[in-house]
Amino acid sequence: QASLTCKDILLFKNLDQEQLSQVLDTMFERKVTPQEHVIDEGDDGDNFYVIERGSHDIVAAKDDQSRCAVCCDNHGSFGELALMYNTPRAATITATTEGALWGLDRVTFRRIILKNNAKKRKTYESFIESVLLLKSLEASERKKVVDVIGQKVYQDGERILSQGDKILIKHKIVTSTEVNQEVEIGRCQRGQYFGELALTTNKPRAASAYAVREVKCLVMDVQAFERLLGPCMDIMKRNITHCEEQLIAMFGSSMDLTNPGI
């Protein structure tokens, strides 16, 4: 069961089969009940968790006030940050329904996942630095991005874009199409990205994306992005001019990115 639950977890995507088997063999199941605190902000990190089923609120304190940063509903993972960076828990995770988690202990996580991430950093850091959307990030922030991205390979004609993912193009080409008419409106090359506008506006996805021949993408889950670096909107504000140019190209007009409620 753990193998099915964990097959789409990006932190595991770059593990070889032996490493993945070691991780799965070590994982343990934890049942949770409504209002149970799985993790408390400020505690030392002990385990990384993958959600098998159930909903969880991730609440972080800011300016002496608690705010719900993310709601994980029957999928996703959490708890990696404290284990990666040897820091206290940055948020409180509370189960809002009955559910089940798969846990990975700190020692195994650091021995396998962190060792693999060191190799991944060497491969992807320079590429991430070349991506326009992420140029405004500090070097330490880019390292965190590399830690939570995974690589996915898509075959010719396969649909790439799916809600909840932020995708960067590592190699080859994709086709963007208008949702209803399926007319090609552009192609992305190596180093370009898509999927970010739906995170910064209240509008639905403006286009679909399909692979043209084999395509390798670096993919980052939105929840991981926001837990690492804060709300996507705040990151976009650093690169506001480029984002507004894309909004005009997509929707024919810009909008106030400094006030996402408008």
UniProtKB/TrEMBL annotation:
Keywords: cAMP, cAMP-binding, Cell membrane, Cytoplasm, Membrane, Nucleotide-binding, Phosphoprotein, Repeat
Pfam families, per the entry: cNMP_binding (PF00027)
Residues reported in the UniProt entry to bind 3',5'-cyclic AMP 1: E80, R89
SUPFAM superfamilies from the UniProt entry: cAMP-binding domain-like
SMART domains: cNMP
GO molecular function, one term: cAMP binding
Residues at which 3',5'-cyclic AMP 2 binds: E196, R205
Domain Cyclic nucleotide-binding: start-end pairs: 11-130, 133-246
InterPro entries tied to this protein: cAMP-dep_PK_reg_su-like, cAMP_dep_PK_reg_su, cNMP-bd_CS, cNMP-bd_dom, cNMP-bd_dom_sf, RmlC-like_jellyroll
PROSITE patterns reported in the protein's UniProt record: CNMP_BINDING_1, CNMP_BINDING_2, CNMP_BINDING_3
Keyword Cytoplasm found: yes
Entry GO terms, CC: cAMP-dependent protein kinase complex; cytosol; plasma membrane
Entry's localization field: Cell membrane; Cytoplasm
Family, per entry: Belongs to the cAMP-dependent kinase regulatory chain family.
Function (record text): Regulatory subunit of the cAMP-dependent protein kinases involved in cAMP signaling in cells. Type II regulatory chains mediate membrane association by binding to anchoring proteins, including the MAP2 kinase.
Protein name: cAMP-dependent protein kinase type II regulatory subunit
